[in-house]
Automatic annotation (TrEMBL):
Biological process (GO), any one: prosthetic group biosynthetic process
InterPro entries membership: CitG (IPR002736)
Protein name (database record): triphosphoribosyl-dephospho-CoA synthase
Region (Disordered): 129-150
Gene Ontology molecular function terms on file: ATP binding; triphosphoribosyl-dephospho-CoA synthase activity
Lineage: Bacteria, Bacillati, Actinomycetota, Actinomycetes, Kitasatosporales
Superkingdom per UniProt: Bacteria
């Protein structure tokens, strides 16, 4: 049975995904500008709607972690089973978010194991959970795992087993931009570009190959080297990269999911406080 704090963590994760979807302009990725374009309006509306379908599964993942009490093989098996059920629910609601579900599910479970954990403690706990194999997972290789094997990329599993290094990089980029006086939108865009600049995104490898991945990474670095999205030069480079990726139909989806993970971890103090308030209200 779930508790208020489990639901609070799930809501924080869904809010983080919604914040990622609301961010614009995101190079090659769905964002609110699509709502004014006939060809992509339905896709973006579906993504916003289906994001809500993650909440019950993420709540169940938090509850499973709290019951289990540690990053054990049993917890990994439970998370896998819940994740597959949640994928089905999300597909019925419009689809998408598979990478985000993997990232957010592990981070939500890690946060539930230790409500006082922050940042690197959460990613370290997620690493310990991901280290266990999911023995009940389908034996058929996913597209992501096939691409990872073909090109030697870490992929989603490798990212988790390494303790989500790109989530940590995004958190560092957020902190750096905020300290420099950037607005929240610019800080989040700089964090996204930081991830894009080095991530071996299997979606890009599938659609564009290694040369295309290097092209996207170089474009993201170019925006950051121009001063980031707070400068005129950086903004100009961002819009050029965005136009380029949309024209090529290249989408760095892996980076988007990891940014959502970083936004969730960044919000954890507020999420934990909300859960504690809810728990006190129930017990009163």
């Amino acid at each position: 049975m779930s508790r208020p704090e489990d639901g609070a963590l799930a809501r924080a994760a869904v809010d983080a995904l919604a914040d990622q979807l609301a961010l614009a302009p995101k190079p090659g990725l769905p964002d609110p500008r699509d709502l004014g374009v006939r060809g992509t309006r339905k896709d973006h509306c579906s993504l916003r709607w289906s994001a809500r379908a993650l909440a019950p599964g993420l709540t169940a993942m938090a509850a499973a972690a709290r019951r289990t009490g540690g990053p054990t093989p049993r917890l990994r098996a439970e998370l896998g089973a819940i994740g597959r059920s949640t994928e089905h629910s999300v597909d019925l609601a419009g689809g998408g978010h598979r990478g985000a579900l993997w990232t957010l599910g592990l981070l939500v479970a890690a946060a539930a194991l230790d409500p006082g954990a922050r940042s690197t403690q959460v990613t370290a706990a997620a690493k310990m959970i991901a280290a266990h194999p999911d023995k009940r997972a389908p034996r058929r290789a996913s597209r992501g795992s096939s691409v990872s094997a073909k090109y030697g990329a870490a992929g989603a599993r490798g990212e988790a087993r390494a303790g989500f290094p790109h989530v940590r990089r995004a958190l560092d980029a957020l902190a750096t931009a905020r300290t420099a006086g950037a607005g929240e939108t610019e800080a989040r865009l700089d964090a996204l570009l930081t991830v894009m600049s080095t991530l071996q995104d299997t979606e890009l490898l599938h659609t564009a190959g290694p040369a295309g991945l290097r092209h996207v990474q170089a474009g993201a670095r170019g925006v950051l080297e121009a001063g980031g999205t707070t400068t005129d030069a950086g903004r100009k480079a961002l819009l050029a990269l965005d136009a380029d990726l949309h024209a090529r139909a290249w989408s760095p989806r892996g980076s988007a999911g990891l940014l959502a993970g970083a936004l969730f971890v960044d919000a954890l103090p507020v999420a934990v406080s909300a859960g504690a308030v809810g728990a006190r209200a129930v017990s009163a």
